[in-house]
Amino acid sequence: MKIRAAVRLVTLVGSVFALIAGGTLAQQVAPMPKRAVSPIEAAQQVAKDAAEFEFLGALARTCFLPPSRSEDFRDIPAPYVSDPSKAPPRASWYAEPAKVFDNLYFVGGKVHSSWALATREGIILFDTIFPYNSEELIVGGMRKLGLDPKDIKYLIVSHAHQDHIGGAEMIQKRFGPRVVMSGPDWDLVEKVPNRFKTMAPKRDIVATDGMKITLGDSTVNIWFTPGHTDGTISFTFQVLDRGRPVNVVYSGGTALVYEYSQPDWGIKNMQTYINSQRHLAAKAKESGATVLISNHSEFDNAVNKNRMLAGRGDGAHPYEIGADWVQRYFVVTENCARATQLKLEQQPR
Ligand SMILES: [Zn+2]
Predict the structure, then answer these.
(1) How far is the CA of 168 from the centre of ligand 1 (A)?
(2) Is the C-alpha dihedral spanning 319, 321, 326, 331 positive or negative?
(3) What's the 232 CA to ligand 1 centre distance in angstroms?
(4) pTM for the full model?
(5) How far is the CA of 255 from the centre of ligand 1 (A)?
(6) Under DSSP, is residue 296 helix (H, G, I), strand (E, B) or coil?
(7) What residues have their beta carbon closer than 5 A to ion ligand 1?
(8) Domains located in the chain, CATH noted
């Protein structure tokens, strides 16, 4: 009986092996047909590999979410301007202000960011969020951090969208800084005045590529990076981390702007955007940028990183990701724009 049982076991094991081997053989003989990777998927894969966990927000926004529909192209006031009760609830946008570097302060909200660069001669403010929250987040935030809004000498607006220009008129009127924006975006503000009602500052300095804004011991280099708007501008500048100089690149506009109903315009605009990403990537590299910041927390994780700062101790600065990782951001945005451009090329005409 014992021998017969052993024989049966050997036969069983043998059959299992034969089955596995047969399966392997079958696979060798008739492999599963591999689906060809389309050029769109290939570009998306390059972006995904570059993003890892650091730039998931930029990846999601530029590669996988539907096109941005945030901008209303009609010349009518924003709903929250005509009726302030239509402003989103405070809980959806409030975030604590934070001192991020020795001389760079976050005065933004959960989604949209403003930044204050403090110099010996006053403050350079970047972007102004919406009309309904710029008072509390920027003016209130600065005061909470011990900065005086009266010291704002320059206000630089990355681009004329309501989530970044919203508080510019108020800040220009109350604190009298010089206001810097690109020519195409000054034109846009003047072309549709009702859309920018209560938001638009009076035309002042016209930003150009390579322009330097110097105040006290700080210089902001302006780079012309159109694509998100016709005149989006971005920046490189230096900050101090516990006295150590650290180079920062500030991306002025990230989301892709296109319409499937206007493929030719979209294809052209994607190329403008791609060229801008390459331009800013080169400037970031030249300046030795190891920090990438944005005007949306979605792209630089500002709100989460501000929380991490509190527990930093003697560790690395949470914003300082290194020059290679800064470059990866541009790999993400460029390849997602390319994938979108390919999709638009396939649109029927
Ligand atoms: Zn925008």
Answers:
(1) 15
(2) negative
(3) 9
(4) 0.89
(5) 7
(6) strand
(7) 161
(8) 39-345 (3.60.15.10)
